[in-house]
Write a structure and sequence with these properties.
single chain; 152 residues; mainly alpha; two-stranded antiparallel sheet; 7 helices; 59% helix
Length: 152
């Protein structure tokens, strides 16, 4: 097993601080993007931190999103009614890829695994966003975990 695979993705990306930088860099670009800014009309500064905490948990860091922000169900519910289009999802991926290249370690496998998570997650967000606010999503289960081999 390559050495980087002996760590979690959370450790390999550089932990909480790296995820905060990633989130901050990404949302700076998103909010200036004419295609994506409307999706984030309700954006607050806390969103940057919440995304970093979410990613930490997904990448096998501390489970603080579940403990403090309502877990997987809360994340999905936040996307209801946003009406994300495939064009917006693809632009989101472009901007996230640029942020990953800027903020995460120069490790092709690590960056690929992180972007695979974002591809998977944005497809779910796009799907959920087509449903109206208040839609009963049922119980989606615990926050997913993403590792070197994808969804754990």
């Amino acid at each position: 097993m390559p050495e980087e695979q002996s760590t979690t993705l959370y450790e390999a990306v550089g932990g909480a601080e790296a995820l905060r930088r990633l989130s901050g860099t990404f949302y700076e670009e998103v909010l200036a993007d004419p295609l994506l800014a409307p999706v984030f009309a309700r954006f607050t500064a806390a969103h940057v931190e919440h995304v970093a905490v979410w990613l930490a948990e997904v990448f096998s860091g501390p489970a603080d999103f579940t403990a403090r922000h309502g877990g997987h169900h809360a994340l999905l519910t936040a996307h209801l009614g946003l009406g994300i289009t495939e064009e917006q999802r693809l632009r989101w991926m472009e901007l996230m890829n640029a942020a990953v290249e800027k903020e995460l370690p120069d490790d092709a496998l690590l960056r690929r695994r992180v972007m695979e998570y974002f591809d998977w997650g944005t497809r779910i967000a796009e799907d959920v966003s087509a449903s109206a606010p208040g839609t009963d999503l049922g119980e989606p289960g615990p926050t997913p975990r993403w590792g070197w081999d994808g969804l754990a």
